Known about the structure:
- By secondary structure, this protein is an alpha+beta fold.
- The chain contains 3 helices and 11 strands, in the order βββββαβββββαβα.
- A hairpin with a 2-residue loop joins strand 2 and strand 3 (61-68).
Amino acid sequence: MGLTCCKVEQVNEVNPANPVNPANPVNPVNTSISDLKYEDFSELTYDFTQAKVLKVYDGDTLTIGVNYMNKFLKFNVRIYGIDCDEIKGGTDVTRHNAQLAKKYVSNMVLNKIVEIEVLNNKKHNGKIVKEKFGRLLSIIKIDNKVLADELIKVGLARPYDGGKKDTSQLNPNLDLIQNIIREPIQSNE
């Protein structure tokens, strides 16, 4: 699963200082918001390309900090293209895998500057990308490696495109994970 090869197109080119839908331009200075229709509004897109990872919740969810429009802002991020086991719920095995994924991601990106491509409201693989819980759905890279690809390679994530989730058991490669975590790992068996 190579996320680096995918082309992303922005649906609406929006200038954050003058957020007008170019397909249906309305001058916000001379127009009252009460006069506008649904089509007159644009979806917000983000164009920042670097972020600092502030917190890792689990293998596929983290919090970033960015300088956006001259403000330091925090955003919750869902890593695009994967699904990891959940920290809460599930079985002892899935919770163990979730903790391994969290440690793996933390060791790779926590408190580091990463490359980020936010996909929300942009066209990707022919469809507009949406995230149902208000997070930024993003491709994250560190040292020219796509984080999602790395998690799949070590067996801590499965591919996920937003449809029905694959619930098959993950089989983490403890030797590969050990190279990143650098602490003793107990098997989940």
